[in-house]
Amino acid sequence: MATIPRYHFLQRLMHWIITLLVVGLLAGGFTFWALGYEGTSGLFGTEVTNQLYNFHKSFGILVLLLMVLRLIMRRVWPAPEYDPPISGGQRFVGGAVHVLLYLLLLGLPIGGAVATTLGGFPVTFFDWTLPAMLEKNEALSAQVFLLHGIGGLVLAALVVLHAAGAIKHAKLKDGVMRRITLP
Description:
With 183 residues, the chain is mainly α. The protein has helices at residues 9-44, 46-76, 88-118, 138-172, and strands at residues 123-125, 128-130.
């Protein structure tokens, strides 16, 4: 009986945990961007809004930590071969999307923490407040938050593209989805 080429179970589990976290972070981030603090507070109340911002920061940092762990796992357990093989064009597009996803999932949490610190706000990781990294600079904070938001839009587009590719491969039943599905 032939073995199906798959990512290690921990890599597959990490993929789906990060997926759930990113979907939640994008939903929260777009809510904050569309409504601002005042609009979000008006809709949910100040206490809930502050908690949502703290969750956004905490889960963002968690994604950063999980992505670092995921990079280490990728070195320990390289990607399995495609069986059957896919075209060079599909490999290129899939590889480019993955590289961009990795860069954004590493960069967005760092940018968010930098923008938060520059805005004079605490960077929290659940019950811990991390030390301020930079002096307060509200103008620079606004610029970095704008880039953070644009990065979130790009991430959302890449997530949609990635999901579309996954759906295509699931319909083709070409073995690509077996590599990453649980269990």
